[in-house]
Design brief:
The structure holds four protein chains of four kinds.
Chain A (H helix, E strand, L loop, with lengths): L4 H24 L3 H25 L5 E5 L8 E5 L1 H24 L12 H14 L3 H19 L8 H27 L8 H6 L4 H19 L7 H8 L2 H26 L8 H21 L3 H28 L3 H36 L10 H4 L1 H14 L6 H15 L6 H33 L6 H4 L6 H19 L1 H16 L26 H22 L4 E4 L17 H4 L1 H11 L3 E5 L10 E5 L3 H22 L6 H21 L2
Antiparallel strand pairs in A: 1-2, 4-5
Helix pairs in contact in A: 1-2, 1-4, 2-3, 3-4, 3-10, 3-13, 3-19, 3-20, 4-5, 4-10, 5-6, 6-8, 6-9, 8-10, 9-10, 9-12, 10-12, 10-13, 11-12, 11-17, 11-23, 12-13, 12-16, 12-17, 13-15, 13-16, 13-19, 13-20, 15-17, 15-19, 16-19
Chain B lengths: L6 H24 L3 H26 L3 H28 L11 H22 L6 H23 L3 H21 L6 H22 L10 H6 L6
Helix pairs in contact in B: 1-2, 1-5, 2-3, 2-6, 3-7, 4-5, 5-6, 6-7
Chain C lengths: L1 H12 L2 H17 L3 H24 L12 H31 L4 H23 L3 H19 L5 H36 L8 H7 L5 H19 L7 H8 L2 H27 L7 H21 L4 H22 L1 H33 L10 H4 L1 H14 L6 H16 L1 H26 L15 H15 L3 H14 L1
The chains are: A mainly alpha, B mainly alpha, C mainly alpha, D mainly alpha.
Keywords (chain B): Cell membrane, Membrane, Transmembrane, Transmembrane helix
Membrane topology (chain B): Multi-pass membrane protein
Organism (chain B): Xanthobacter dioxanivorans
C-alpha cells in the first residue's frame, strides 16, 4: 500500500465530479430536477471525498504531479494527515450543506445564480487542501473566493448584497496578494522554488521567515476574519443563501486556518520564540471583539457571522500557543495546543454549520432574519428548535458537548505555559487566557440571547406566529450536524487520537493515546494533572435529572395546571413588552460596548398626549471601519480626485508633460557618470 | 571630390549652418507676431536646405540633394504660404499668445541648449568624429527648442511651426550622420505628417489654439466629462 | 499543380513577404469595393488568410534578410497580432453593420474604414517584421496615422478632439523616436561602417558590444519616450483613453490589443540592444519607473471614470505599466511573466472591448451611470463581461493570474519595496474595476433591453484561450517564451 | 470490592450535599435574623418549604414550552453533580476524575445558561430583565472564576480538585497569589449565589432582583427544585473554599472509617463557620445598584488575573 494515493485519486475524482456539476448547473438551473441532481451529486461527492480522507488520516502521505498549472513544475497535489483532516472537516460541512440545499434550494428565487457556483465553491476548497505548490494553492484559493463571491451576489437585488460582494472580493484579493508575497519569499525567486517540497528543502532566513509570518497572518487572517480584517465577513456571510453562509462561515474560514498552518508550521522553517505573541494577540482580540459585536447585532445571521470571528480567535490563540511551545522546545505542550486548535476547527465547523442551517430554516419559515420579528418558534418548529438548542449549548462551551472539550484543552494548554522561558510570553499568556475566559462567558450570553429571542417567548410578528417546520432534507442536515456535536463531545478521546497523525506530522510529537484510558476519559498530560470525561458527566447529569424527576413525580406531585402567566400580577400585555434583542443586550452594551464600539442608546419620547409610539434605538460601530477602512477609502477617493485632473488637461499641457519627461531624463544622463 | 576641399572647411561650413539653425530657433522663440514667425521659419527652412545641400556635396551623397529640395520647396515655400493664407482665411488674430512670456522662454531655451551640449559632448566622448558630435549637439538643441515652442505657445499655427522646427532639427541630425540611409524617405514621410497637421487644422477649423480655457468647452470635449 | 505546390513550399520557406502582401493588396481592393457586406467579408477573409500565413511562420526558418527578419521575438508578436486582427475583423463585421443601421456611419465611411483596417494591419506587420530600424519607424508612423483617421471616423466634436490629441502627441512621439533612431545609427556607424548596415537590426545586434555606450544611452532615452508614447506609459499616456473611447469599438480593440503591443515591441528591440551591451545605463530602472507610474496613475484614474470604454482604456494603461515593469525587472521569471501578460492582455482586453461594443449598442450609451444590472437584462452578454473583467482583473483561472503571480512573487523576492508598490497598485486598480463591475453587472437593470444581435464567437474564443492559459500552457509555447525571456536578459 | 467502596463513598458524598444544602441556608437565615434582632424561622424551615413546594401542583403559563418544564431538572442535576464533585469530607472520589475544576465551573455555567433561557421562555418582561442581568453578571463572574482556577492550578500544577486539596494539605506556605485568589473567590461566590450586595435572595421588589425575576413564573415542584439547586450552589462554593483553603481533615482516597468520620466533623465545622461569616457579611453591608455590580465583579476578575500573573512571573509568589 503506497501511502494515501488511492484516497488522493478518489478526492480528485470527487473534485472532478463537482466541477462537472458546476457546468451542469448552468444548463439545468431552473428545473427542480436540476436542483436535486446538483445538490444530490454534491452530497455524494463530498461524502465520498470526506470518507476517503477519513481513511487517509492515518496512512502515509501521497503526492502526484499533473502536467497543468505552472508550466515548468506542473501542479503538485499531495494528501497528508493535515490536509486529510481538513478534507474531512470541509467535506463534512459540504455534505451537510448539500443535503440542506436539496430542501432549502426549493425556496431560492434565483437558482441559476446559485446552482453553478455551489459545486464550484466546494471543488475550490477541496483543491486548496490538495495543492502542494504555490501556484495551484493560490489558484484554487482565489477560485474558491471567486465562486463564493458569485454566491454572495447571487441575490443581487436585495439591498446591500452587491456592496457586501464588493467588500468581500476586494478583501479576498488583498489576502491573495499577501499570500502571493509570502510565497514569493518562500520560493526565493527561483523558477523551481514554487513547489512546497522545494520550500521545505530551503526554509527562509530569520527575517524572511518573520515577514512570511506577518504576510500569512494578513493573508489567511483576512480570509479567516481576524480583526481588523474581518469587516467583509459580517457583510458577506449573511448575504449568501443560508447553506452557503454555513459553508463560508463554518468551512471556508477553516480553509484559511489550514493555509495559515501550512505556511507557518510547515513551510517557513523552525519558528522564533516570539512568533506566538502576535498570533495569540490577534486571536484574543478577535475573540472578544467578535463576540461583543455578535451580542450587539439584531440580524440573526450577522450575529452568527460575528461569532465566527470569535471562534477563529480561539483557534488562533491555540495556534499561537502551539508556536510558542514549539519554538521553545516543549513538544508535548505544543502537541496539546495544536490538537486543541484542530479540535476547535472541527467543532466550529459543525456548530456554526448547524446554527446557520437553523437560521436559514427560520428564514424560510418566517421570511425574516431580524430577531425582533421572531419569537416563540419553539412551539412551531419543534425539530429546528431542539437542534438549534444543541448548537447554542455547544458553541457556548457547555459540557458535555464538543465546544467545551476544545475550550478545555485550550485552557489546559494555557496552564502549561508558565514553563515558557521568555518573559514576553509569560506576561502575555495569562492575559490571553483571561480574554478567552471572558469571550467564552460572553458567548454563552450571546447565545442565550440568540436562542431566547428567536425561539422562546411569544411571537413578535404574524409571520413568526404562522411559521411552519422546514422540510425533511433540511431537518436531516441539521440533525446530522447536531449528532456530530454530541458525539464529539461525548467521545473526545477518539477525535483527539484521530488528530494525532496531523499533529505529529507538524510538531514531531503527539499527545498520549486517549482511547486506552479507562472509561474513555481524556488525559492531556497526566492523570494527576487534569482529566475530563464527557460521557461520564453526561450520564451522571442525566441520571440525576431523571432520578429527581422520578422521585418527585412518584413521591410528590406530578400535577400540572395551565394558567395565564403571572408576571407579577400584570395582565397579559402585547408581545412587544417582551425583551427585544436590543434590550436584552442592554446591560452588556452598557458595560462593555460604550467605549469600545461607541455604543449609544437614544430614546424618543413623544410629548404628552401625542399618539406616536416612543422609540428606542441603540447604535454601535465597528472600530475597524471607523478607524481603518473608512479613512482608507476616503484617502483613495481623495487621491483619485486629485489624479483625475490629469484627464482634463489641454494638448499643450500634455505635450508639456512629454517635454518635461524628456528634459528630466536628459538631466539624469547629464548628471549620471 | 573630398580632397578638393579641406576637411577643415567642410567642418566649418557645416558648423556654421548648424549653429545658425539654433540661432534661428531662438529668433523664432523671440517672435510675437504670427507673420513674422512664419517668415523666420521659412528662413530656417532655407538655411536647413542649404546645410543639407552642403552635406550632400561634402559627403558626396547625391540623394541628399532631394532632401534639400524637399526642405526648400515644401517648408520654405508651400507650408509658410499655406499658413499665411490660413491665418488670413480663418481670421486667426495675429498675436502669438504665450504661456510664459518671451524673456523666461529665452532663458529656458539657453538652458536647454546648454543641456543638449552637455549631454551630447558627454555621451560622444568616444571615437565619433567631431563634426558628428557638434552637429548632434546643435540638432538636439533645435529639437528641444522646437518642443519648447510647442509647449509655451498657445496658437495652433505657432505650435505647428514649433513642430516643424523640431523636425528641422531631426533632418539636420539625419543628414549630419554620414551615409545614413532612408533620409529622403524619412523627410518625405515627415512632410506628409506636417501636411496632415496643416490640413487637419484647416479642415477641423481648430481656430486659435489646441487648448481652451473656457470650462464648458472642457465639458464638451476633453475626456468626455459628462 | 506544381505551381500550387511551389507556392506552398515558397510560403513555408519564407512566409513573411506573403504576410505583408495580403493586407496591402486587400487594402487596395477594399478601397474599390462599394458594398459594405462584400467588403466586410473580404476583410474577414483577408485577415484569416494573414493569420494562416502567420501560422506558417512557426514552421518557417529564422532568417534575417536586408529588409525582413523572422526571429523568435517577432514571431510571437506577429502570430498574436494577426490572430487578434482576425477575430476583431469578425467582431467588426457584426458591429459595423449595426452602426450602419443606426446611421452613425455611411457606406462610404465603411469603405474607408475597411481599407484603413487592412492598411493598419499591413503597417503593424511590417513594423514587426522589418529588419531595418528606419522601415520599422516608418511603418509605425503609418500605423499611427491610420488609427488617427479611424478614431476620427465619427466626426463628432469629441471624436475629432480625441483624434487630434492622439495625432499631436503621436507626431511628437514619432519625432523623438526618429531622433533616437538617428542616434542609434550614429552609434553604429563608426563600428559597422557607413551605409544601410548601420540600420540593419541583425547586424547591430552582432556588433553591439563595440558600440559607444554613452550615445546609446541618449538614443535609448529618446526611443523610450518616442515609442513609449505609443505604448501609453505615463506620463505619455494622454492620447490613449480618449482615442479608445471616441473611436469605433473595433478600433479600440485593435489599439489595445495590437498597436500597443507593436510599440512595446519596438521598445523591447532597443532594450535588447541595450541589454546586449554591458557598459550601458541599465534600461531596467527607467522601464520600472514608468511602469509603476502608469500602474498607480491608471489605478487611481479608474475610480472616477464615467465612460465604460475610457474605463477599460485606463485599464490598458495599467496593464502596459505592469508589462513594462516586468521587462524592467528582467530575469527569466519576470520576462516570462511580461510576455505572458502581454499575450493575455491583448486577448482579454480585445474580448472586453467586443463585449463593451455590444453593451453600448444594446444600452445605446457609453455612460457607466446608464449601464446597470446587465446580468439581469442581458444574461449572456452580462456574464461574458463579468468573466472577461474578472480575467483582466487577474482572477483565476485566467492567464493574467499566472503572469501576475509570477511577476509579484519574483519581484518581491528580488526588490521587496518596489513589489509592495506594485501590489498596492494592483489592489487599487482591482478595487476600482470591481467597483465599476458590480454596478455594471448586478443590481436592478437600467432601461435598454434591446436584443443583442452579435456573434459571441470571437468573444468566446478569446475568453476560452485566456481561461485555459491559466491552467495549461502548451509546452512548445512555454519553451519558446522562456527562450525569448532569456534573450531579453 | 474496592470499586464498590469507592461507589459508596461517592454516593454518601452526593446524598450528604443534598441533605446539608437546605440546612446551610436555614442556618444562614437564622443567623441573619438573630443579628437583626429577630427570632427568625427555625433552622429546618427550608426543608419544610421544599417539601411543601414539592407537593404543590405546578402552575405553568399557557405558552410555556417543554424547555420551561425540563430546565428545573437540568439545573438541579447540573448543580448537584457539580457539588458532588467537590471534595467535602474526602478527596479522591471515584467520579472526581471525570471532571476537574474547569468542568465544574462549566457545569454551573450550563445550569445558569438553561435557567436564563427558562426566564425568557414565557415571554414576560420580568423574565427578560432577570435573564439579561443574569448573563451580564455571569459574563464577568465566570472569567473571574476561571482566573481563580488558573491561580490554584498553577500552584498545584493540576486542575483536579482532589490533587489541589492534597497539595494544599501538604502545605504551600502563604502566597500573595492565593490570598488574591481567595478574596476573588469570595466575591465571585457572593455574586454567583445572588447574595447581598449583588442580589437579594429575600426581596420581591421586582426591579431590584435578578435571580428571583428569572424564576418568577416557576411554581410548585419546579420552583422547589430551583430553590434546592441554589442552596446546593451555596453549599458548593462554601465547600470549595473549605477544601481548597482549609483542607485540614479531608480524608485521603481509600481512608478508613475513622478518616471519613474526621473528615465529616471538620467539614461540618467549616460549613458552620462559613454560614456565620456569610450572614455577618450580608447584614453588615447594603445591596448595590445593578450597574455597580460590573465594577464589583471586574475587581474580582482583576484580582484573579493579578494572582495568575504573579504565578506566571514567578512560581513562588
Amino acid at each position: 500500500m503506497i501511502g494515501a494515493s488511492f484516497q488522493l485519486f478518489v478526492v480528485l475524482g470527487a473534485v472532478g465530479v463537482l466541477l462537472l456539476l458546476a457546468v451542469a448547473g448552468v444548463a439545468l438551473a431552473g428545473r427542480p430536477a436540476g436542483r436535486i441532481l446538483i445538490y444530490g451529486g454534491a452530497l455524494a461527492a463530498s461524502g465520498v471525498a470526506g470518507l476517503s480522507a477519513l481513511t487517509a488520516l492515518a496512512s502515509a502521505p501521497a503526492g502526484l504531479v499533473l502536467p497543468i498549472g505552472l508550466p515548468w513544475i506542473g501542479a503538485h497535489l499531495r494528501i497528508d494527515a493535515l490536509s486529510a483532516f481538513f478534507l474531512c472537516v470541509i467535506n463534512l460541512g459540504g455534505a451537510a450543506a448539500s443535503l440542506y440545499g436539496i430542501g432549502y434550494g426549493r425556496h431560492d428565487h434565483a437558482p441559476q445564480r446559485v446552482l453553478p457556483f455551489f459545486p464550484a465553491f466546494l471543488a475550490g476548497m477541496n483543491l486548496v487542501l490538495l495543492a502542494a505548490d504555490a501556484y495551484s494553492f493560490l489558484l484554487s484559493w482565489e477560485f474558491m473566493s471567486l465562486a463564493s463571491w458569485a454566491l454572495v451576489v447571487a441575490h443581487d437585488k436585495e439591498p446591500g448584497n452587491v456592496r457586501a460582494g464588493l467588500v468581500y472580493i476586494i478583501m479576498a484579493s488583498f489576502g491573495t496578494l499577501a499570500l502571493m508575497l509570502a510565497f514569493g519569499l518562500l520560493a526565493a525567486g527561483t523558477p523551481e522554488g514554487y513547489a512546497f517540497d522545494a520550500m521545505r528543502a530551503a526554509p527562509p532566513g530569520a527575517v524572511a521567515a518573520a515577514v512570511v509570518l506577518a504576510l500569512a497572518m494578513l493573508g489567511a487572517g483576512s480570509k479567516a476574519g481576524l480583526v481588523p480584517l474581518h469587516v467583509w465577513l459580517p457583510l458577506a456571510h449573511p448575504a449568501a443563501p443560508s447553506h452557503v453562509s454555513a459553508l463560508m462561515s463554518g468551512v471556508m474560514t477553516k480553509v484559511a486556518v489550514y493555509g495559515f498552518i501550512r505556511i507557518v508550521f510547515d513551510l517557513s522553517g523552525p519558528p522564533a520564540w516570539w512568533w506566538g505573541l502576535p498570533v495569540m494577540a490577534a486571536g484574543g482580540v478577535a475573540a472578544v471583539i467578535g463576540v461583543l459585536q455578535a451580542l450587539l447585532q439584531s440580524d440573526a445571521k450577522r450575529a452568527l457571522a460575528y461569532s465566527t470571528i470569535e471562534n477563529i480567535g480561539f483557534v488562533f490563540v491555540a495556534l499561537g500557543l502551539a508556536l510558542a511551545f514549539r519554538a521553545n522546545g516543549f513538544a508535548a505542550a505544543a502537541a496539546l495546543a495544536l490538537t486543541a486548535a484542530l479540535f476547535h476547527v472541527l467543532n466550529h465547523a459543525a456548530m456554526k454549520g448547524l446554527l446557520f442551517f437553523s437560521a436559514g430554516a427560520v428564514l424560510t419559515a418566517t421570511g425574516t432574519r431580524q430577531m425582533d420579528q421572531l419569537g416563540g418558534l419553539i412551539h412551531r418548529m419543534p425539530v429546528t428548535s431542539v437542534v438549534a438548542l444543541i448548537g447554542c449549548a455547544a458553541i457556548s462551551a457547555l459540557p458535555p458537548l464538543n465546544g467545551f472539550v476544545s475550550e478545555w484543552l485550550i485552557f489546559q494548554a494555557v496552564l502549561l505555559s508558565p514553563d515558557l522561558p521568555a518573559w514576553g510570553l509569560r506576561l502575555m499568556v495569562p492575559a490571553i487566557g483571561a480574554l478567552l475566559a471572558l469571550a467564552a462567558a460572553l458567548a454563552a450570553a450571546c447565545f442565550v440571547r440568540f436562542y431566547g429571542i428567536i425561539f422562546l417567548g411569544r411571537p413578535r410578528s404574524p409571520s413568526a406566529a404562522g411559521a411552519q417546520e422546514v422540510d425533511a432534507f433540511s431537518r436531516a442536515a441539521m440533525i446530522a450536524l447536531a449528532g456530530v456535536c454530541v458525539a464529539a463531545g461525548l467521545l473526545p478521546g477518539l477525535v483527539i487520537d484521530a488528530l494525532q497523525p496531523a499533529v505529529s506530522g507538524l510538531i514531531g510529537h503527539r499527545m498520549p493515546e486517549q482511547s486506552s484510558v479507562a472509561w474513555l476519559s481524556i488525559i492531556p498530560v497526566a492523570e494527576s494533572r487534569s482529566s475530563y470525561n464527557g460521557l461520564l458527566v453526561f450520564l451522571f447529569t442525566a441520571f440525576s435529572a431523571l432520578a429527581a424527576a422520578y422521585v418527585i413525580h412518584h413521591l410528590a406531585s406530578g400535577a400540572v395546571r395551565r394558567a395565564p402567566p403571572w408576571d407579577c400580577g400584570f395582565p397579559d400585555a402585547s408581545p412587544l413588552t417582551q425583551y427585544s434583542a436590543a434590550s436584552f443586550a442592554q446591560p452588556i452594551r452598557r458595560v462593555f460596548a460604550r467605549s469600545l464600539f461607541a455604543a449609544r442608546e437614544r430614546v424618543e419620547m413623544p410629548p404628552p398626549g401625542a399618539l406616536t409610539p416612543a422609540r428606542f434605538t441603540a447604535t454601535a460601530r465597528d472600530p475597524a471601519w471607523a478607524f481603518l477602512f473608512v479613512p482608507l477609502t476616503k484617502a483613495v477617493g481623495a487621491v483619485a480626485e486629485r489624479a483625475n485632473h490629469l484627464q482634463y488637461l489641454t494638448i499643450r499641457q500634455y505635450l508639456g508633460l512629454v517635454f518635461s519627461a524628456l528634459v528630466l531624463l536628459l538631466l539624469v544622463l547629464a548628471l549620471w557618470t | 571630390m573630398e580632397h578638393a576641399i579641406s576637411a577643415n572647411l567642410v567642418f566649418d561650413v557645416a558648423h556654421l549652418f548648424a549653429g545658425s539653425l539654433v540661432l534661428i530657433s531662438f529668433l523664432m522663440l523671440y517672435q510675437d507676431r504670427l507673420y513674422a514667425l512664419l517668415n523666420v521659419f521659412a528662413l530656417q527652412a532655407v538655411v536647413l536646405s542649404l546645410s543639407v545641400a552642403w552635406q550632400a556635396y561634402a559627403q558626396d551623397a547625391p540623394h541628399l540633394y532631394v532632401t534639400a529640395v524637399i526642405a526648400l520647396a515644401f517648408k520654405a515655400l508651400i507650408i509658410p504660404v499655406a499658413l499665411h493664407r490660413m491665418v488670413a482665411r480663418l481670421g486667426i488674430h495675429r498675436q502669438v499668445e504665450t504661456v510664459v512670456s518671451i524673456g523666461p522662454t529665452m532663458l529656458a531655451g539657453i538652458a536647454l541648449v546648454a543641456l543638449s551640449m552637455v549631454v551630447m559632448l558627454k555621451a560622444t566622448s568616444g571615437d565619433a568624429d567631431a563634426l558628428a558630435r557638434e552637429d548632434l549637439a546643435f540638432a538636439l538643441s533645435v529639437v528641444l527648442l522646437g518642443l519648447l515652442m510647442m509647449v509655451t505657445r498657445r496658437n495652433a499655427v505657432s505650435q505647428v511651426v514649433g513642430f516643424m522646427s523640431l523636425e528641422n532639427g531631426l533632418i539636420l541630425a539625419a543628414t549630419g550622420a554620414k551615409g545614413m540611409p532612408l533620409v529622403v524617405e524619412i523627410s518625405v514621410a515627415f512632410s506628409v505628417l506636417i501636411a496632415f497637421i496643416v490640413i487637419g487644422i484647416f479642415l477641423f477649423r481648430i481656430r486659435e489654439r489646441f487648448d481652451t480655457v473656457d470650462v464648458d468647452a472642457l465639458d464638451r470635449f476633453r475626456g468626455g466629462r459628462p | 499543380m506544381s505551381l500550387v505546390s511551389g507556392l506552398l513550399s515558397g510560403l513555408l520557406s519564407d512566409p513573411a513577404p506573403v504576410i505583408l502582401a495580403i493586407p496591402a493588396v486587400t487594402a487596395l481592393l477594399l478601397a474599390l469595393v462599394p458594398s459594405y457586406r462584400v467588403s466586410a467579408a473580404l476583410n474577414v477573409t483577408a485577415c484569416g488568410l494573414t493569420f494562416l500565413c502567420a501560422l506558417a511562420l512557426l514552421a518557417a526558418p529564422r532568417i534575417a534578410g536586408p529588409f525582413l527578419i523572422v526571429d523568435d521575438l517577432n514571431i510571437v508578436f506577429v502570430v498574436l497580432n494577426t490572430f487578434v486582427a482576425f477575430t476583431t475583423s469578425v467582431f467588426s463585421a457584426s458591429y459595423i453593420a449595426h452602426e450602419l443601421e443606426t446611421g452613425r456611419l455611411t457606406p462610404l465611411h465603411l469603405r474607408f474604414y475597411h481599407a484603413m483596417y487592412q492598411v493598419l494591419l499591413a503597417a503593424m506587420t511590417l513594423a514587426l517584421l522589418s529588419n531595418n530600424l528606419g522601415v520599422m519607424w516608418v511603418a509605425i508612423e503609418v500605423a499611427t496615422l491610420t488609427t488617427v483617421l479611424m478614431v476620427g471616423l465619427y466626426r463628432t466634436e469629441a471624436a475629432i478632439e480625441a483624434a487630434w490629441k492622439y495625432f499631436m502627441l503621436g507626431s511628437v512621439g514619432i519625432a523623438l523616436a526618429l531622433f533616437g533612431t538617428i542616434l542609434v545609427y550614429m552609434v553604429a556607424q563608426p563600428v559597422v561602417g557607413e551605409g544601410p548596415d548601420g540600420m540593419i537590426w541583425s547586424v547591430l545586434m552582432k556588433r553591439a558590444r563595440d558600440f559607444d555606450p554613452g550615445l546609446l544611452n541618449v538614443a535609448f532615452v529618446f526611443l523610450l519616450l518616442g515609442y513609449g508614447t505609443k505604448v501609453g506609459l505615463a506620463p505619455l499616456h494622454a492620447w490613449l483613453p480618449d482615442a479608445h473611447s471616441e473611436g469605433p469599438t473595433p478600433i479600440s480593440a485593435v489599439l489595445s490589443g495590437l498597436l500597443l503591443n507593436v510599440a512595446l515591441f519596438a521598445v523591447l528591440r532597443f532594450k535588447l540592444l541595450m541589454a546586449s551591451h554591458p557598459g550601458t545605463l541599465a534600461p531596467g530602472p527607467l522601464l520600472m519607473a514608468m511602469g509603476l507610474a502608469s500602474l498607480l496613475l491608471a489605478g487611481f484614474m479608474l475610480y472616477r471614470r464615467r465612460d465604460i470604454k475610457r474605463l477599460f482604456a485606463y485599464s490598458s494603461i495599467e496593464h502596459m505599466g505592469l508589462i513594462a515593469f516586468a521587462f524592467g525587472i528582467g530575469g527569466p521569471l519576470a520576462n516570462f511573466a511580461g510576455l505572458l501578460h502581454m499575450t493575455m492582455h491583448s486577448l482579454t482586453k480585445s474580448a472586453i472591448f467586443f463585449a463593451v461594443g455590444h453593451v453600448c449598442q444594446v444600452k445605446g450609451t457609453q455612460k457607466l451611470a446608464d449601464i446597470r444590472g446587465l446580468t439581469t437584462s442581458h444574461p449572456a452578454l452580462g456574464w461574458f463581461l463579468v468573466v472577461a473583467v474578472a480575467a483582466i482583473a487577474g482572477l483565476p483561472p485566467a492567464g493574467v493570474f499566472m503572469s501576475e503571480f509570477l511577476l509579484v512573487t519574483s519581484a518581491f523576492a528580488r526588490m521587496p519595496l518596489l513589489a509592495l508598490l506594485l501590489v498596492a497598485g494592483l489592489l487599487i486598480a482591482f478595487g476600482a474595476l470591481m467597483l465599476k463591475l458590480s454596478d455594471i453587472a448586478f443590481g436592478a437593470p437600467s432601461p435598454g433591453t434591446a436584443k443583442v444581435k452579435a456573434s459571441y464567437v470571437p468573444l468566446g474564443v478569446h475568453l476560452a484561450l485566456v481561461l485555459v492559459a491559466g491552467l495549461y500552457l502548451p509546452p512548445p509555447l512555454v519553451a519558446w517564451f522562456r527562450h525569448v525571456a532569456a534573450l531579453l536578459g | 470490592m474496592d470499586l464498590i467502596a469507592n461507589f459508596l463513598v461517592q454516593g454518601t458524598q452526593m446524598l450528604l450535599v443534598l441533605a446539608l444544602a437546605p440546612l446551610l441556608t436555614g442556618v444562614v437565615r437564622k443567623v441573619k435574623a438573630r443579628l437583626t434582632r429577630r427570632r427568625g424561622a427555625p433552622v429546618l424551615q427550608p426543608y419544610r418549604d421544599l417539601a411543601r413546594l414539592m407537593h404543590k401542583e405546578a402552575v405553568l403559563a399557557q405558552n410555556a414550552s417543554w424547555l420551561f418544564r425540563c430546565v428545573p431538572y437540568l439545573v438541579f442535576a447540573a448543580t448537584w453533580v457539580a457539588a458532588a464533585l467537590v471534595p467535602t469530607f474526602a478527596t479522591g472520589l471515584i467520579f472526581s476524575w471525570s471532571a476537574d475544576l474547569i468542568a465544574i465551573t462549566a457545569l454551573l455555567a450550563s445550569a445558569r445558561f438553561f435557567l436564563a433561557l427558562a426566564g425568557m421562555d414565557v415571554g414576560t418582561s420580568f423574565g427578560g430583565i432577570g435573564s439579561s442581568r443574569e448573563v451580564m453578571i455571569s459574563s464577568l463572574a465566570e472569567p473571574a472564576l476561571i482566573m481563580i482556577v488558573f491561580s490554584l492550578a498553577l500552584v498545584a500544577h493540576s486542575t483536579q480538585l482532589s490533587t489541589i486539596a492534597q497539595v494544599m494539605l501538604a502545605g504551600v506556605g502563604l502566597r500573595v497569589s492565593l490570598a488574591l485568589a481567595l478574596v476573588a473567590l469570595l466575591m465571585v461566590a457572593v455574586a454567583e449565589n445572588g447574595r447581598i450586595p449583588v442580589d437579594n435572595p429575600a426581596t420581591h421588589l421586582e426591579l431590584t432582583m435578578v435571580h428571583e425575576a428569572m424564576v418568577l413564573e416557576y411554581s410548585g415542584r419546579h420552583l422547589g427544585l430551583i430553590e434546592l439547586a441554589s442552596q446546593l450552589k451555596l453549599l458548593l462554593f462554601l465547600s470549595l473554599v473549605a477544601c481548597v483553603f482549609l483542607p485540614w481533615g479531608l480524608a485521603p482516597a481509600g481512608a478508613g472509617i475513622g478518616g471519613f468520620a474526621l473528615g465529616m466533623a471538620t467539614y461540618a465545622l467549616k460549613l458552620g463557620a462559613g454560614a456565620v461569616l456569610l450572614a455577618v457579611f450580608e447584614t453588615s453591608i447594603a445591596k448595590m445598584r445593578v450597574f455597580r455590580v460590573p465594577d464589583f465583579l471586574g475587581a474580582a476578575l482583576m484580582l484573579g488575573l493579578l494572582g495568575t500573573l504573579l504565578l506566571f512571573v514567578s512560581g513562588i509568589l
